[in-house]
Write a structure and sequence with these properties.
Layout lengths: L7 E7 L4 E4 L5 E14 L6 E12 L2 H10 L5 E14 L5 E9 L5 E4 L3 E2 L5 E2 L24
Parallel strand pairs: 4-6
Antiparallel strand pairs: 1-3, 1-5, 2-3, 3-4, 5-6, 5-7, 8-9
Length: 149
């Protein structure tokens, strides 16, 4: 018996408002893009660099669809836990296409809202668990890309 694990953890910002649709059996499906970024300082120029990766998130969960419908908007900061899945389909020109997604199924995965939102009394409720804005690393930690192994 082989052992394997397919688990993804992402922390990022939503690229556009979530899209909610229904499967033929009535299950709600929510999808949105999530941006994750990394920053570093170029060793040669000293210039700050940034690289952004875009991830397609798809959730097959009424609970998560409810949360996304009520609270998630473009720019929302989220923690996403799911599994990587690659889907294949044939387009209108009869060409096979593939897409890789982070899937949150009914019982596997989660979404946690990390930024501020308003409660029923219109008072700001802080959910800034993790601040994703990184200005610079502390001066005593070198920012070189050489790995020690």
């Amino acid at each position: 018996m082989s052992i394997s694990l397919n688990k993804v953890y992402l922390l990022g910002n939503v690229g556009k408002d979530p899209d909610i649709r229904f499967l033929p059996d009535g299950t709600r499906v929510v999808s949105f893009s999530l941006a994750t970024s990394e920053m570093w300082k170029d060793k040669v120029s000293g210039e700050r660099k940034e690289k952004t990766e875009w991830h397609k998130i798809v959730a097959f969960s009424d609970r998560i669809a409810d949360i996304c419908e009520k609270y998630v908007r473009k720019g929302s900061k989220l923690y996403v836990e799911g599994q990587i899945q690659t889907r294949k389909w044939t387009d209108s020109n009869n060409i096979d296409r593939y897409t890789t997604e982070v899937v949150i199924s009914r019982f596997k995965g989660d979404i946690i809202l990390l930024d501020a939102r308003r409660n029923s009394g219109d008072t700001q409720v802080e959910h800034d668990i993790i601040d994703s804005h990184v200005d610079e690393a502390p001066a005593d930690i070198p920012l070189d890309d050489d790995m020690p192994f």
